[in-house]
Amino acid sequence: MFTGIIEALGSVADLQLRSGEWRMNIHSAALDFGDVILGDSIAINGVCLTVTKLGNASFEVDVSNETMEHTTLRGFDKGSKVNLEKALTPNKRLGGHIVSGHVDGVGELLALRGDGASIRMDFRAPKELAKYIAQKGSICIDGTSLTVNTVSGATFSVNIIPHTQAETIIQNYKVGSKVNLEVDLIARYLERLMQGDSAAEEQQDSAGKLTKSLLAENGFI
User: Fold this and answer.
1) Which of 35, 34, 39, 12 lies closest to 25, judged by CA?
2) Which of the pair, 26 or 221, is modelled with greater confidence?
3) Quick check: 133 and 153 in contact, CB under 8 A?
4) What letter would DSSP give residue 218?
């Protein structure tokens, strides 16, 4: 588990295809490796990956084809900048929100504009994720916990304060940039819970979806 508070920036030092899967080496002079051991989890742009090797201010991870296919990691090259966060520990402040490190989909930056010292960014999420994105709710973008300002269909906006601009790869975003999205974990579990006993049954494509009638049946409206 993670908090969505980025601890350090890093860069891709090496990326190789080995035995049908990918091995990635990440270098970071800023990340504290003092408490990192083999088998630990580190989120790279919001993707939870396991440390398989430690080096001098660097670490290696194995990346499955599944992860490559469904995240922005497939677009990495040597030198690509990344957000890094070590896994949550019991004595760590939960400054962002509960993040699993399991990417739900890839979004796209549609527009950005100045808003005082901050930057307002508009993103488009995959249509199937739109129902989980709520105004003033939380969303994780490339591992960064952010508050949703507005929502319109599958498009939502966030406000990036100067500190976040300086400490994350968001500073490098341009219109058209692809980003990893993880929606609020509670929303996903709520949808599943509301299926009740029918959750144990095989669902048709139209079944199990969060609808107005389902909300009414369970006393939410």
Assistant:
1) 12
2) 26
3) no
4) T
Alpha-carbon distance of 25 to 54, in angstroms, equals 9
Give mean pLDDT, residues 101-127. Answer: 97
Alpha-carbon torsion (24, 28, 32, 33), positive or negative: positive
Does the 105-187 domain belong in CATH 2.40.30.20?
yes
Distance between CA atoms of 165 and 94, rounded to whole angstroms?
20
What one-character-per-residue DSSP string does 87-156 give?
A: PP-TTS---S--B-S---EEEEEEEEEEETTEEEEEEE--GGGGGG--TT-EEEETTEEEEEEEEETTEE
What average pLDDT score do residues 91-117 get? 93
* Whether the Cβ atoms of residue 192 and residue 200 lie closer than 8 Å to each other: no
pLDDT (mean) for 130-152:
96
Residue 208, pLDDT > 60, answer no
Q: Report, as an integer, the average pLDDT of 77-100.
A: 92
pTM across the whole model: 0.88
List residues bridging with 98 in a β-sheet.
Answer: none
Q: Are 83 and 6 in contact (CB under 8 A)?
A: yes
Q: What is the pLDDT of residue 13?
A: 98
Domain boundaries along the sequence of the chain: 8-86, 105-187
- In CATH, the architecture of 8-86 is Beta Barrel (2.40)
Q: Is 83 helix (H, G, I), strand (E, B) or coil?
A: strand
